[in-house]
Amino acid sequence: MKSHISVITLGVADLKKSTDFYENLGFPVERSQDITFIKVSKNMRMALYGLDDMVKESGVSTNTGDFSGITLAHNVISKEQVDSVIEEARLKDVEIIDEPQERHWGGYSGYFKDIDGYLWEVAYNPFSPEIAVDEDEL
Amino acid sequence: MKSHISVITLGVADLKKSTDFYENLGFPVERSQDITFIKVSKNMRMALYGLDDMVKESGVSTNTGDFSGITLAHNVISKEQVDSVIEEARLKDVEIIDEPQERHWGGYSGYFKDIDGYLWEVAYNPFSPEIAVDEDEL
Description:
With 138 residues, the first copy, chain A, is α+β, with helices and mostly antiparallel strands. Chain A has helices spanning 15-25, 51-58, 79-91, and strands at residues 7-12, 29-31, 35-41, 44-50, 70-76, 95-102, 108-113, 119-124. Chain A has one domain (7-131): 2,3-Dihydroxybiphenyl 1,2-Dioxygenase, domain 1 (Roll), CATH 3.10.180.10. Helix content of chain A is 23%, strand content 36%. The relative contact order of chain A is 0.21.
């Protein structure tokens, strides 16, 4: 797994209010119906997304209070690379909490947790090639 | 405030175990006594740092359960720029939770919270100029 974060997503209570907050700070917000993207580096974005939707998608439990509210996304260039990164993590005894699958937003992803409970999404997003890494590139 | 994340810090229970976890995944870890840095982009690092130390430094309360365990750092090129970014945030009614001050690690920083409670550190770190932005640059 290459060392790159493509998106850091903050789970928010009210998307409009949180987007307004960052816009007011001077950040270039790109609003859409259910997610806001903010460019924070050439090949990295911050996203604001409803906390409820994040929980629903990843299947992570918030009952135990161990979900930070944040996910780190590692984007790759194909569905096959999502599968192989998740398999590589599984072979290393990493806890896979949601198997790779098609997502309602048009991409394909799986989730794992680090040992402190922080959530990583390994994703193929056909709409954002500029923030993906090619795992097969030498 | 320019739109850039310099460091995303994950508060961890056991620095060695968490560092081993990411090294095992294939990430290039740079260990030092009380912090681990991982390069995740040309001008961005992920850091692993003791959760207790993070809480102590920022003064954030974990009693209410509202600290995610993660801080987002926005690094600038001088102490004066730390002060001016924090002042700019304060004028915009952002909650400053720790005023700019010298830090034991040799830098200077202040902290604010976004409206969902996520913590931002505005920092001058003389040891990491490569991940800082110049707020005065046009």
